[in-house]
Amino acid sequence: MTKMAPAIVILGQNSVSVARKIISVLPGATLYGLAGRTSGVDVSFTNFGDTLRELFAQGTPLIGICATGILIRTLAPMLANKKQEPPVLAVAEDGSAVVPLLGGLSGVNDLARRIAESLHVKPAITTTGDIRFHTALLSPPPGYYLANPDDAKKFISDLLAGAQVKLEGTAPWLSNSQLPIDPKGNLTIQITERLVTLTPNCLVYHPATIAIAVSDTVDVALVQQLLTDAELAPASVAGIFAPITMAANPAIKAIAQAFNVPTRFFTPNQLKSFLSQGYSPAQAIAYTVTSASPTLRSAAIASTSPHVAIAIAPAPIDPSTIGQPQGRLAIIGTGPGGSQWMSPEVKEILKSVTDLVGYKTYLDLVGSLADGKQRHESDNRQEISRATMALDLAATGRYVAVVSSGDPGIYAMAAAVFEVCDRHNKPEWESIEIHVAPGISAMQAASAAIGAPLGHDFCAISLSDILKPWSIIAQRIAAAAQADLAIAFYNPVSQERTWQLSEARNILLQYRNPDTPVVVARNLGRPGQMVKVIKLNELIPEVADMRTVILVGSTQTRTILRRNGEIFVYTPRRYTE
């Protein structure tokens, strides 16, 4: 079953080192830090209480590196239903104590053990059943689902009072515990994927042993009916398995969402052996999932639908070890500078991806969010080969981020990726989920740094003539000048290309006053940031490089010089001729 990644909340910089140790065993965790007192965090917050309560309401597991009292007082008004509480733990600032507070039904003690192990301490677990029996009946490990938690409290109380329990079915985490197991026990624990009648003296755990194989479009209702007819528990479904050609099929996603399980996919080569033996595609997938063991073959269920097959494994299935996930490709923009320019969406993507593809300078902007990722660096001019490589990687089931600075859809990699898809359209790319995550563009950042020169109508023009002829560029500059638009110039000069900026200035001077304000912004958001205002007739190649964006005002653009020497440039919203 899917679970949310935890949030680690800190109030001071001294807690960062402990937080990083915890993240090493919880790699999907997000680090929240109090603004003004912490740096190098994923998310900054200003109000501890509001942030904590919002995360708790969303069901996010919470790890507070702070005193237990502040967590208790903050969350106390929200405590209503322990069945829905996410895990909440307090960790000492020096890592010397790990205290589970809430979420006994959602695995807080197991989470505490993982964290404590990373910090080389013992967790302060106080749950009597856990201490005596060395197992948590209320929060079984991954791969098992407790069907009747309402009966568990009295059941555990009876065990603590001396009752004995017989174990029906196989579950190593129970048989290896210190439970009072006796074949003649008056209490029962049953491990089964079958639908059974629930009774107070029997705890029923459904193991994730059912694989549902789908080879063509079917609806959720059919799959649910097949399970009902076979008297199988939906909670035992481990995953939905299908051919890679169905990875983008909405029906597959709907089925997986209905059972709250992952999807995994197989290539034709992976299914070839079973298909050659005469099995239907759905049966071939089912037998591939279960490794074609004779025991498992006999457990495969004949389906009334030729496109669905169900197989039962003797032990919980870990879908992450079978087939491959749907490939995902995120085309992201980091903004023009460091992490403070990145959107929360981009940061979440960067934490989740397996591979980073891009120009080295842009990959370096990712900072610590690149830790543990496969980096695929290439020259800045290799956009098409970079896009092709990213798509090929994603087609193998990887989660790939193509990294651009600024916004990926403005003179950046988003267009390159779609251009490659349009020109080549490899069948294996059809299975990839593609998503574009926007970023702050250089022209937005430059405008904000100096005021609002793009406050009225404007356009953007790249001065690079690598991908389009200069004649087209000159035509567009003249058209923008005649239309009296403010203009953002991208790629103004490079080491091999300097004359275009002078030519652009000369064209503009045919329509604009020589005193027209021009904003020159370099290294925005990075060390060495420079933003200055010059006049149009002062615009020469020496003022710019490839890390520079230039904003040329319209005839309406004005400059404000304040008494303290500060300069603002803006274009009025109301246009006057």
Helix/strand layout:
Elements: E1 7-10, H1 16-25, E2 30-34, E3 43-45, H2 48-57, E4 62-65, H3 68-75, E5 88-91, E6 98-102, H4 108-119, H5 128-133, E7 144-146, H6 152-160, E8 165-168, H7 172-175, E9 187-191, E10 202-207, E11 210-214, H8 220-229, E12 237-243, H9 250-259, E13 263-266, H10 268-276, H11 281-289, H12 294-299, E14 308-312, E15 328-333, H13 344-352, E16 355-359, H14 360-365, E17 374-378, H15 383-395, E18 399-404, H16 413-424, E19 433-437, H17 442-450, E20 451-452, E21 458-462, H18 470-482, E22 486-490, H19 499-508, E23 517-522, E24 530-535, E25 548-552, E26 558-561, E27 567-570
Describe this structure in words.
This protein is an alpha/beta fold and 577 residues long. The chain folds into 5 domains: 7-126, Rossmann fold (3-Layer(aba) Sandwich), CATH 3.40.50; 144-207, no CATH class; 210-321, Nucleotidyltransferase, domain 5; 328-440, Tetrapyrrole methylase, N-terminal domain (Cobalt-precorrin-4 Transmethylase, domain 1); 443-570, Tetrapyrrole methylase, C-terminal domain (Methyltransferase, Cobalt-precorrin-4 Transmethylase, Domain 2). It has 19 helices and 27 strands. A 6-stranded mixed sheet has the order 3-2-1-4-5-6, with helices on both faces. It has a 5-stranded parallel sheet with strand order 17-16-18-15-19, sandwiched between helices. Strand 23 and strand 24 form a beta hairpin. Helix 1 packs across helix 4 (108-119), helix 15 (383-395) crosses helix 16 and helix 18 (470-482) packs parallel to helix 19 (499-508). The chain is globular and about 100 Å long.
